[in-house]
Amino acid sequence: MATPHSAKRQRTTSPLAHQSRVLVLSHPNTHHHTGHTSSRDSSGEKPERTMAILTYLAKLYPVSHGLLQPPTPPQVVFDSNPPRAQLRDLWRVHDVEYIGRIIDQTPKCGGRSRHFSPGRAGVKTTFLSPGSTEAILRAAGAVTTAIDTVLASDSNITTAFCVVRPPGHHCGWSGVEPLDTDIDLAQGFCYVNNVMVGAAYAVHEYDTRVAILDFDVHHGNGTEGIMRRLLSTHPPEIPFPLLFISTHQYSPGFYPGTGSPHPSSSPYSRHIINIPLARGTSSAEFRKALKEQALTALRDFAPTLILISAGFDSHAEDHVGDLDLVDEDFQWISMVCKRIQKKIVSVLEGGYLGDTSESCLVRSCAAHIKGLLDEGEDSSKVGS
Ligand SMILES: [Zn+2]
Q1: Cα of 216 to ligand 1 centre, how many Å?
Q2: Which of 67, 102, 161, 183 has the fewest beta carbons under 10 Å from its own?
Q3: Over 60: is that where the pLDDT of 302 sits?
Q4: What is the residue extent of each domain of the chain?
Q5: What pTM does this model have?
Q6: How far is the CA of 336 from the centre of ligand 1 (A)?
Q7: What is the pLDDT of residues 332-375, one digit of tens each?
Q8: Alpha carbon distance 314, 370 (integer Å)
Q9: In the beta sheet, which residues pair with residue 211?
Q10: How far is it, in rounded angstroms, from Cα 34 to Cα 268?
Q11: How far is 246 from 239, CA to CA, in rounded Å?
């Protein structure tokens, strides 16, 4: 029987079907979003982040050279030219005027970066440079392309990882998300919420049930804000098709200051699960918290697609946060997700370069892909 969200798009064969199991998407134009010189220090959100990740993954999963086909299909394939997102895909989860301001205020070619601060004033982490609108549309376009690929009915690429920037999970409906706190929120390097664009796209185009898992060290306040807005306007007679689970550091003064659990009496509690973690949370404590507070809900929700807000600043070596996760934790949580639902689209959020050539960011991404390939620990240790 048709529903208001009945599938409108024919699931077609992806051109990359039958080649591999994990698709890594990126676009060189995302490097043209340069932010501002003041944010391009060792902890900044800068083009070198995604460049380093892609260089590292290319070494781990080299493309075959020459004319001969490799004897076995590669486990990982790369798509570096996904199309731009359509504006209508952004408008499902963002105010039309807000998106218009991004486009209007992006400096013309050769212009200088400028601060972009929609709504309330905040810490200056959001700057528009001449390539910003292009980067933003390419980042969101990578996510919708990834969803098209993994939901293609005969594709054996069930999993994708979008190595894109700028990140998105701090961006709400109109940029800033005050939520239930009175602190003056900035956007934390985010302009468009890539994961929520993907979630709305998947529901609208494929009639899916989407679970979003966010393991960035910071609370996905923008994602929660958009979830709340969608929940508040959703017809009660139609099951709400989204679940959001966030693990994040929650300690005094730590950005963004939101992310406390919703009590069971809250209208949000069935669809927004916040798992705040104390400073210094260890690998074992992180896994225990997820097992006790999230995995049953995730299984019960029975998603037909899992989106991951993959923030690797929760690694112990990343100096932005104070959690003590290790490479293997990103492999573990990816495997757990894969065994609940094999169709996964993961999207890069935070995670920053250190001083070493093999930083925790690139190692964590490699561990994440291993987990998405369902490699590593035996099933008895996965914690199902
Ligand atoms: Zn973060």
Answers
A1: 5
A2: 67
A3: yes
A4: 22-381
A5: 0.89
A6: 21
A7: 999 999 999 999 999 999 998 876 778 999 999 999 999 999 86
A8: 18
A9: 243, 306
A10: 36
A11: 21
